[in-house]
Amino acid sequence: MMNIPLSKPWITEDDIKEVAEVLKTPNLSLGPKLLEFENMLLRVSGRKFAVAVNSGTSALHLIIRSLGIKDGDEVITTPFSFIASSNCILFERAKPVFVDIDPNTYNINPELIEEKITDKTKAILAVDVFGQPASWDRLIEIAKKYNLYLIEDSAEAIGSEYKEKPAGSFGVASVFAFYPNKQITTGEGGVVLTDDEQIYKLSKSMRNQGRGEEETWLYHTRLGYNYRISDINCALGISQLNRLNKIIEMRDTVAKMYSQKLSEVEEVITPYISPDTTRMSWFVYVIRLKDKFYGKDRNIIIESLGRRGIQTRNYFEAIHLEPFYVEQFGFKEGDFPVTEFVADRTIALPFYTTMTEGEVDYVIKNLKEVIYEVKHS
Ligand SMILES: Cc1ncc(COP(=O)(O)O)c(C=O)c1O
Predict the structure, then answer these.
(1) What is the pTM of this model?
(2) Which of 308, 334, 348, 359 could staple 315 via S-S, CB 3.0–4.6 A?
(3) Residues 343, 345, 156, 177: what is their CA dihedral angle, to the nearest 10 degrees?
(4) Residue 218 CB neighbour total at 10 angstroms
């Protein structure tokens, strides 16, 4: 039996060497590797300013705080995402106002946004789900019309392009994230990207305990956090970023292999890539089961694959149905039907940069067998 994980970072001997080099220097934090990593991220995103931090969640929180979003404000966002894109709004006691998704791209549906805008709406936070950029042209139009901040959660989409513009370049500020399941990893890490000097200065200060601009050690101008990322992590990020294009190509090859081989599995819908996505940087490979296999059947498929050594996951669960969202806001089933329909049927298959054709074949062979079992049970 093969053991195939859901994801796996690609760490090379070069990566290890770069990390070890930092350990020979006195600069383990706030050193030259931080600046080098930030400068590389500016080139990937086409932004003016970068503030690297210890997670994508921290990066989102810094943006929310830098924009002054607070108690009682409303932020329009998607319920089909990783929970951090919505939790960052709760950190400042503002309210996430969910808008349902497009049934093909799984990104926020811009045509449903305007009806949710109120006097309290301050921002739209859209997510480039699974690596596919949201509909930025429409989102920019709506944000301009209603004078709202637009935030891009591009945690999953480093290197993707929307109409030939890089993911991470849209809205007033954006984030990438570098957990080990991401296209490139720093172990833990994230970054705030912006063209706005004020957001940059505030994020930089709040990353480091609210210190003033000169970063004098015991001079604190505002409430801040310890969201620093170490130079050890940044060295890994630099080494990984150096082969970003190769990583994106290798992941694309794996995704294409899956889509081609799955085209004959009639119970499975393979990922849809919009023509606006001029470059896809795959974060995960998520299939959707045809309509009649959902909920319990989908979960049986996930469990059976697990018993066969294949790790898969029900990406994503609908955020509004997470227990503490239900408790706090009273959301219920049926509130966001497209999200719920999709969330009930999706399965993230094992997917990583170095995945081989033999591993893809093994996953597909077992998936077919397990679907057959469910159909005939
Ligand atoms: C869409 C999205 N937003 C935010 C995050 C948070 O990033 P992190 O796990 O680095 O805090 C993630 C990553 O896991 C994500 O997928």
Answers:
(1) 0.97
(2) 348
(3) 60
(4) 6
Residue of 78, 156, 158, 160 to mutate, ligand 1, most atoms within 8 A of C-beta: 156
Q: For the chain, how many structural domains are there in total?
A: 2
H runs (alpha helix) in 73-124: 84-91
Q: Convert the pLDDT of each residue in 22-53 to its tens digit.
A: 999 999 999 999 999 999 999 999 999 999 99
Q: Do 281 and 184 fall within a single domain?
A: no
> How much distance in Å is there from the Cα of 94 to the middle of ligand 1?
19
Tokens matching residue 229: 């990322």
Q: Which long-range contacts (CB under 8 A, 24 or more apart) does 295-303 make?
A: 295/344, 297/374, 298/344, 298/345, 298/346, 298/347, 300/370, 300/374, 301/347, 301/367, 301/370, 301/371, 301/374, 302/347
Task: Give the domain-ending residue among 187, 217, 241.
Answer: 241
Nearest to 149 by CA among 62, 64, 48: 64
Distance in Å, CA 329 to ligand 1 centroid: 22
Counting from 1 in the atom list of ligand 1, the atom nearest the Cα of 60 is: 4
Give the structural domain span for 23. 13-241
What are 136-177's pLDDT values in tens digits?
Answer: 999 999 999 999 999 999 999 999 999 999 999 999 999 999
Q: Helices in 92-219 by DSSP H: which ranges?
A: 136-146, 197-207
In a domain? residue 3: no
